[in-house]
Design brief:
Length: 386
C-alpha cells in the first residue's frame, strides 16, 4: 500500500480553486487499490473524516493571511511526520501543492527524509511574476519557489514550459522533474434548462450572443486589454465577465482607464459556482477570451476548450502549449484583439464547428481527467523511493 498525503489545498469537497478541484478529481478518479490518499483540509475543527475513499484530516490555520497559510502547511507536515512515526513500515509520499511552505520546507524535508518519506511538489505557475505583488513580495515568492524545488525529490509541473523553466533556473539543484498536466472533461452538451433560462433572462443576454471571460480578477489576466479591445470592436454582442470582482483599487483603476461602465455591452455578472450552469454558460458563448499571462496549464482554459467552440487566447507559450491549432491568438498590441474579434464574426459555421471539434479532441487526447489520474497513479506507485 502506498500512502499519499496531498498537502496545501484548502481541502475537499472542493468549493472553488484549481488545487482543490485537482485533489477532488484525483481522489474521485482513483482506480488503484494500492494507493490510499490522505487529504489535509483547512478547518479549525480538527478531526478526521472520509470522503470518496480518502482519509481527510482538518488542520487549523493558526493566523490570518499568507503567514497563516504558510504555518498551516508546516503544521500539516508535522502531522505527517507523527503519522509516519506510528506507521514506520508504510511506503509514504507527501505531495505539496504550491510554494506557500517556502523556507520552512528545508527543515521539514530533513525530518521527513530520515523517515524515508518521498517529497513531491507542484511549483504551480510563476506566482512571483504576478503584477499584484510588490518587489519585495516577488523576491520572497521566488525564494519560496527555490526552497520548494531544491528540497524535493520530484518537481511535478503541469506545463512543459514550467518544467523547462524549473530545469533551467535550478539546474544542478533540482533532483528530478516531470510533466503532468491538469485535467478537464468533455461532456455531452448541457443544453438549456430552467436554471440557464433564468440566468440568461436575468443577465439580459442571448444564446451565442456574447463573448465570455472566466478568471480571477487580477491585473495579470489582462482585463484592461481585453475590455479596451472589445470596446473598440465593431460587434453587437456582449462581453460577459465571470469573476470574483471586488470594488478595490484594481477595479477603480480599470474603470478609470477603460470607462467600461459607459458601454452597455460590458457585463460583470459575478461568480458562478454551479458546475452545470457554468458549463451551459460556456457552451452558449459565441467565443471565449483568455488573457492569462502567468501560470501553467490554466483550468479555465481547459474548461473553455472542452465546451466553447471558438477560443481567442493571448499568444504566449503556456496557452499555445495547451490549445495548439484548436484556438485563435491575439497579442497585446493595440488593435490585435479587436481585429480578431471582428474577423471571428466572419467565420463560417463550418469553421467554427471545426475549431470546436479540434478543441475537444485536444482535451480528450492530452487533458482528460481519467488520463491525468492514471498518470499520477503511475508516478506514485512506480517512483524510486528515497
Amino acid at each position: 500500500m502506498m500512502d499519499v498525503f496531498l498537502v496545501a489545498s484548502k481541502g475537499i469537497p472542493a468549493r472553488y480553486g484549481g488545487f482543490e478541484t485537482f485533489v477532488e478529481r484525483l481522489v474521485r478518479g482513483k482506480k488503484s487499490q494500492e494507493i490510499q490518499y490522505h487529504v489535509s483540509c483547512m478547518n479549525n475543527d480538527e478531526k478526521h473524516f472520509q470522503y470518496q475513499g480518502a482519509d481527510c484530516f482538518n488542520v487549523r490555520v493558526p493566523l490570518p493571511g499568507p503567514a497563516g497559510r504558510i504555518l498551516h502547511v508546516s503544521r500539516v507536515l508535522s502531522q505527517v511526520y507523527r503519522w509516519k512515526m506510528k506507521h514506520p513500515g508504510q511506503d509514504t509520499i507527501v505531495y505539496i501543492l504550491g510554494c506557500r511552505i517556502g523556507p520552512l520546507l528545508k527543515w521539514h524535508a530533513a525530518r521527513l527524509h530520515k523517515l524515508r518519506i518521498t517529497i513531491m511538489v507542484n511549483p504551480d505557475g510563476l506566482e512571483w511574476k504576478r503584477a499584484k505583488w510588490s518587489g519585495i513580495e516577488k523576491r520572497f515568492l521566488r525564494y519560496c519557489e527555490k526552497c520548494l524545488v531544491v528540497n524535493s525529490d520530484l518537481a511535478i509541473c503541469d506545463s512543459v514550459n514550467i518544467e523547462s523553466y524549473i530545469k533551467k533556473t535550478y539546474a544542478g539543484k533540482v533532483k528530478k522533474t516531470t510533466f503532468l498536466a491538469y485535467g478537464a472533461d468533455v461532456h455531452p452538451l448541457a443544453g438549456t434548462d430552467e436554471t440557464w433560462n433564468r440566468w440568461m433572462k436575468d443577465k439580459k443576454i442571448g444564446s451565442y450572443g456574447y463573448y465570455l471571460i472566466v478568471g480571477r480578477f487580477v491585473p495579470d489576466n489582462n482585463y484592461e486589454t481585453m475590455i479596451l479591445e472589445f470596446m473598440k470592436a465593431k460587434t453587437d454582442k456582449d462581453l460577459v465577465i465571470i469573476s470574483n470582482v471586488e470594488k478595490n483599487k484594481f477595479y477603480d483603476d480599470l474603470q478609470r482607464k477603460t470607462g467600461f461602465e459607459q458601454d452597455h455591452r460590458i457585463k460583470f455578472v459575478g461568480t458562478v459556482y454551479e458546475e452545470e450552469l457554468l458549463r451551459s454558460i460556456r457552451e452558449h458563448a459565441f467565443a471565449y477570451l483568455h488573457g492569462h499571462e502567468v501560470g501553467g496549464t490554466n483550468p479555465s482554459l481547459l474548461e473553455a476548450l472542452a465546451t466553447t467552440k471558438v477560443n481567442l487566447l493571448l499568444n504566449i507559450g503556456f496557452n499555445q502549449e495547451v490549445a495548439g491549432k484548436a484556438a485563435r491568438y491575439w497579442n497585446k498590441e493595440e488593435g490585435s484583439l479587436s481585429r480578431l474579434i471582428e474577423n471571428t464574426e466572419k467565420l463560417s459555421n463550418a469553421k467554427m464547428e471545426e475549431l470546436g471539434r479540434l478543441a475537444k479532441e485536444r482535451i480528450r487526447d492530452a487533458y482528460s481527467w481519467p488520463k491525468i489520474c492514471a498518470d499520477y497513479e503511475e508516478i506514485f506507485l512506480r517512483y524510486e523511493r528515497v
